[in-house]
Amino acid sequence: MSRKSHPLDPLFHPKSVVIVGASKTPGKIGHALLTNVLKYGFKGPVYPVNPKYEEIEDLKCYPTVLDIPGEIDLVVVAIPAENVPKVIGEIGAKGGKVAVVISSGFKEVGRDDLEKELLEYGRRYGVRILGPNIFGVAYTPKRLNATFGPTEVREGSIAFITQSGALGIALMGWTIVEKIGLSALISVGNKSDIDDADLLEWLKDDPHTKVVLVYMEGVKDGRKFLKVAREVSKKKPIVVIKAGRTARGMKAVSSHTGSLAGMDSVYSAAFEQAGILRADNVEEAFDWAVLFSTGKVPLGEETVIITNGGGVGVLATDACEVNRIKLLDPPEDLREAFSSYMPPFGSARNPVDITGQATHVEFEGAVESAIKHDSVKNIIVLYCQTAVSDPIKLAEVLVEQNRSTEKPMVASFIGGEEVAEAMEIMREREFPAYPTPERAVKALAAMLRWGRRRKLLDRV
Amino acid sequence: MSRKSHPLDPLFHPKSVVIVGASKTPGKIGHALLTNVLKYGFKGPVYPVNPKYEEIEDLKCYPTVLDIPGEIDLVVVAIPAENVPKVIGEIGAKGGKVAVVISSGFKEVGRDDLEKELLEYGRRYGVRILGPNIFGVAYTPKRLNATFGPTEVREGSIAFITQSGALGIALMGWTIVEKIGLSALISVGNKSDIDDADLLEWLKDDPHTKVVLVYMEGVKDGRKFLKVAREVSKKKPIVVIKAGRTARGMKAVSSHTGSLAGMDSVYSAAFEQAGILRADNVEEAFDWAVLFSTGKVPLGEETVIITNGGGVGVLATDACEVNRIKLLDPPEDLREAFSSYMPPFGSARNPVDITGQATHVEFEGAVESAIKHDSVKNIIVLYCQTAVSDPIKLAEVLVEQNRSTEKPMVASFIGGEEVAEAMEIMREREFPAYPTPERAVKALAAMLRWGRRRKLLDRV
């Protein structure tokens, strides 16, 4: 990569990984961290640090960071909170650049003093701190999984920043099951030093990241966050789930993290100005991110719906209207093109109903007509499983068509086992497919919203 | 069953099933209908009718309905539209009561004349007509699957009425994958005779149906529908997905079915007065139905959230506030009970955070405390997968606890493979579990809304 060096580079592509508090005991966090780094296939040297052991997992184990023979840059710390500040000092003395502080027992349990001390050590010794109170960091392009979550994170283009540890780890497992690929996964916890803005700044220029998804409960420095977010949003979309939207939710946030959630309407307005897309919940956020991870950008507003079921066509039409997606009235030549892929009782108007008689061949023809025609900017494909059609063949066709065009495409497939299989194929090959028409439409609507905001940001 | 006889009884528990247009050719609708009836295990006689064959699937095949030796009541008709009216006459002459007219080619393609003729034959010969232009009917308690959809429909308590054929068949397959059980599945198509109101009336007294889910694009007789719906809603909830909510959606409906969708706001107001719950989309409708299928009724408003993750606790709290679910401030004795199942840094306030250290044992204890305490009326359980807890054991615990109490319970599980397995276990054993906190909360909110409306209906 030809980009300038950045203070957070060692967090994502370290030369080596040090694990302070590495353990031999399965079930311990210090064991999971080490085995994840090894199993996930990190290419550089890995140095376990623990005065109790000579070696762990066939690796020489060092009593302290200072005893490591080679150069260090990224250090994961999983030892009792009281001992962390001193270790930060040693890391700095040894030339380490970033410490991923897994340990809890700081501000989140009222030990503001200890967190302050940790931060002071970091500043004094030139060590940037991620955390404390986190489950780690993963960056799939470098096969780095320094978390105590699941091992087999899928490679992809979504960077996920999470303030909640439990939710983050649980979602890590969920993305594996759902075949959703991540570029990065960063647990920020107490955000004592490195915060969302710092990470966004780094991810902005990361060629492997096409969209940034943030779960946040509060922001430390709102002005800084919004300033960076504006810059990032011009280039790639940011999707935020902001918890603590209601009075009682805010109360829950402060009792949970000690951070102040702040007025929700203020957040919403500020997010919008910064080009940030706010999702109502986790499912929606990932729905949108899956579309954004294709790296496509909106080319315009005019959208067509191609369906083999009248009912889902109506549901999608409703959803388009509600979510302000402009449905194209197809010009005559396009209507003629569509008509050649449907029986006489089909409809070449929008929604384009190629009817329940359609196989993947008619779908392919109709979609290809939409791809080729300049008046169409976005394509929504709806499929209801029928006896005459093969959802897996259709999935394969759509994957190829999506790769062949810059026009954003989304699909909804409804049906049984074969549809579940087709959905997997599409997810694995980065085609944004959803279980309902509404979720497909809402994802496209988010992309178009981002396109509109981005234009406004560029003008300022 | 000791209930009075009803004209639609033969549709759901026929003595025999006649299939006019039964076929030997796999892939044909007349073949799928016959094999589904046989494979799904219908207990009475099955009579294929088709002049072309002597026998089909080892059953004697009759040239006409009139040649059948035994008594008939339910007749499925899958022959070209032009021939249907005459066959209705023969069915009536032979004593048949209900005809399920699969055939298309009537009003939906502009042949209003043929549909009128069909209806006249039905009236003249005393035969009630379901359809035409439908995929059939299934009633699982009697192992009746007279559809050309998937065979292995799961038994359960949700009755699903659908005006869209393609969507209905596709969802039929989807319910099998999702382990969602149905009591009945009825395709209504053109609703020439039997309409939603007739079906609701029958389902009201069906002991196997705990909730009725309706996908509709238009209502023929609004007054009749609302009158029946009011009566049904007092007893069991009705969830409606009404397509054609927007101007463009309505236009799509009329070009698709020829029926008039009508003003959406009028529908919403009328639904509310009739106690009907309106769902925004198919996923939401089934989310709600899954909770209703437990047969539980709301006992009150006060709700507690029990979670092992602070973040999801906040998300659920927000969702409760937005969806008007009243979160209980737990009285002191209950707080004490909760506290015994969490470390000191947990929270016994609501959301009750038993922390990431919780195993299924702590969950069980905390949930049991909520079940036993009178102040709690509803329980929301949130689980984020952790290394120390087993989601499958927790699922088993919750299934039992849900069976032991009349209090409505919902859960959200987030995580990897084991969570996917736990979700399956819960769905199979009729515990309402969802992939996000918001969907769990919204399902409970729908139940509480039904409870409030039901009270108002009772007063009128």
Word description of this protein:
The structure is a homodimer of 460-residue chains. With 460 residues, chain A is an alpha/beta fold. Chain A folds into two domains: 9-292, Rossmann fold (3-Layer(aba) Sandwich); 303-459, Succinyl-CoA synthetase domains (Rossmann fold, 3-Layer(aba) Sandwich). The first copy, chain A, is built from 16 helices and 19 strands. The first copy, chain A, has helices at 9-12, 29-39, 84-94, 112-125, 165-177, 196-204, 222-235, 247-257, 264-273, 282-292, 310-322, 332-339, 360-372, 391-404, 417-428, 437-459, and strands at residues 17-20, 46-49, 55-56, 59-60, 74-77, 98-101, 128-130, 136-139, 144-147, 155-162, 182-187, 211-216, 238-242, 277-278, 303-307, 352-353, 378-384, 409-414, 433-434. In chain A, the strands form four sheets. Chain A has a seven-stranded mixed beta sheet, sandwiched between helices. Chain A has a five-stranded parallel beta sheet with strand order 2-1-5-6-7, with helices on both faces. Chain A has a five-stranded parallel beta sheet with strand order 16-15-17-18-19, with helices on both faces. In chain A, β18 (409-414), α15 (417-428) and β19 (433-434) form a beta-alpha-beta unit. The longest helix of chain A has 23 residues, at 437-459. Chain A is elongated and about 80 Å long. At the A-B interface, α5, α8, α11, α15 and α16 of A face α5, α8, α11, α15 and α16 of B.
